[in-house]
Amino acid sequence: MLILLADDHELMREGVKLVLNKHGSDFRFLEAQDYAQTLCHIETNPLIDVILLDLAMPGKERLQGLKQVRLSAPSIPIIVLSVFENSSDVKAALMLGANGYVPKSSASTTLPYAIDRVLQGETYTPSSMLTQPEITTGTQYFAYKNSELQLMDKEITGRQREVLQYLVEGYSNKEIARKLNITESTIKTHLTNIYRILGISSRTGAVRAALNLGMQ
């Protein structure tokens, strides 16, 4: 099995290899320490079986990086390895195409199990996170009726669509304001209106809705 192990900390990469090799002898590894190397490996190694991805690597903002990796490797399972264990990070990763989410504080048996699950077409998140009410997994997305879609198309302005697109790409309010040459407070106003139109109350909810409406 060929695993692309993408993490900017060598100690973490060595630890992951040690853990996996204890659970099997058929693992081979490609290593990357930033997003540029990760994307290069994806382009030049079509036989990668699974990607283990630390979002907080140099080169891209976390969610933007995951989105780029998913676009470059649409059919390869991706498991996020992260120090962040809050439900919003898990949900955002799943929304942007991750097949699994493994906190770095997990037991050593967790990662081999997660790899097995995603290779069988399933989605893996820790059971403790699944009990949090705002977590959803796999391909559970918002389902909008046609009338609601038409209403959204009618109400959202062109500028709001631009803001929403940058939101999907993982930019912060400050970065979006800079790109659109408007104030950060104006961005917050646009987001408030977007949340109202979409019937949601959070940034991750807006990203999910946008993805389900075909934004990429």
Structure description:
By secondary structure, the chain is of the alpha/beta class. The chain folds into two domains: 2-130, 3-Layer(aba) Sandwich (Rossmann fold); 146-212, Winged helix-like DNA-binding domain superfamily/Winged helix DNA-binding domain (Arc Repressor Mutant, subunit A, Orthogonal Bundle). Helices cover 51% and strands 11% of the residues. The protein contains eleven helices and five strands; from the N terminus they run E-H-E-H-E-H-E-H-E-H-H-H-H-H-H-H. It has helices spanning 10-22, 35-44, 62-72, 87-95, 110-119, 127-130, 146-155, 158-168, 173-180, 184-198, 203-212, and strands at residues 2-6, 28-32, 50-54, 78-82, 100-103. Strands 2-1-3-4-5 form a five-stranded parallel beta sheet, sandwiched between helices. Helix 8 packs across helix 11 and helix 10 crosses helix 11. The chain is elongated and about 55 Å long. The two termini are 30 Å apart.
Separation of termini? 30 Å
What topology, given as strand order, has the largest sheet?
2-1-3-4-5
Low-confidence segments, given as residue ranges, are: 131-152
Portion in beta strands: 5-15%
SSE pattern: EHEHEHEHEHHHHHHH
Mean pLDDT metric: 81
Structural class, by secondary structure, is alpha/beta
CATH superfamily of the largest domain: Response regulator
Query: What count of helical segments does DSSP give?
Result: 11
**Major sheet:** 5 strands, parallel
| CATH top level class name of the largest domain | Alpha Beta
Fraction in helix: 40-55%
Total strands: the figure is: 5
Shape: elongated
How many independent structural domains? 2
CATH topology of the largest domain: Rossmann fold
From the alpha-carbon coordinates, what is the Rg to the nearest angstrom? Answer: 18 Å
CATH architecture assignment of the largest domain: 3-Layer(aba) Sandwich
InterPro entries: CheY-like_superfamily, EvgA-like, NreC/VraR/RcsB-like_REC, Sig_transdc_resp-reg_C-effctor, Sig_transdc_resp-reg_receiver, Tscrpt_reg_LuxR_C
GO molecular function: DNA binding
Keywords: DNA-binding, Phosphoprotein
Organism: hydrothermal vent metagenome
